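seq:
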Amino acid sequence: MPQRSAVFVSRLVIALAFLPGLVRGTTNLIPNPGFESDLNQWIVPFGLGPSLAWTAVDELGKTSGSARFSPLPASTMVSLDSACFPVVPGSDVVFGAGFWSSAQPGQGGVYQALLRLFDGAGCAGDPQQQALSDLQPYFATSSNWRPLQGHATAGPATQSGSLRLYAVGDGALDEVRFDNAFVYADAACAPTSTVTCLGDRFRVAIEWAIPDGTRGGALLRAFSSDSLRASFFNSANVEVVLKVLDGCSLNDRYWVFAAGLTNVGVVVRVTDTRTGLTWTRLNPQDEPFAPVQDTSAFATCDE
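struct:
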């Protein structure tokens, strides 16, 4: 796929691929997760509160909206907390959101989702347990929508929780947007347009980058329980294929195989949600994506 500075993605395909609130038939625990028409049920705990506003720009291209912070001076943190929601003690919880940022050349920031769990009802006092999204923070001059996602197991005394979305500007940021936040119980991975879950255990996210600094999350489609394909600029154009194989009976490892049809910058991250370990593959700009056959990717067969 040749490099290009203009990126066109079919919003219809994205919307069909990611239906917020539907993960294994469970219910999203967050009120107003997609900022449908306002910022109701969300608060600013600290940071640049006056810079927060609702915007009609939506991650999925729907007639909805998102939360927008703008502008962010250098080394500034902004954050947004969801309303409190009940959590079942001992349950697996997957959480995350989509984010978008824009900055001048040479500027960037770090973006994360933080799950805060409380032993009492109503999220009173300090959280007894916290978990960060396990995808790496992003540094970028500008980007399309990309994913944040993490997983935690609630403690035996947990009763409630809240999701915090935040950004820290390494340099000055023109704006940061968040959309389609989610917290699902009884799941370790949530499939979205830019995250795929393989074997109910391995979370896959792929990021692309082009020379002008633009970055984005690849559109991912699983075509079997252990395999997926990724598209960057056009949903009909396959750029990377990847599979995670159970090789435990052969060498006590899970294997990761991947192949690419691109020469743009690519970062592939595969996370074992049971252990939190992440396997990473980097493809530099202007280099063909070399085949990967890693038969020692995860030594986690006994987990």
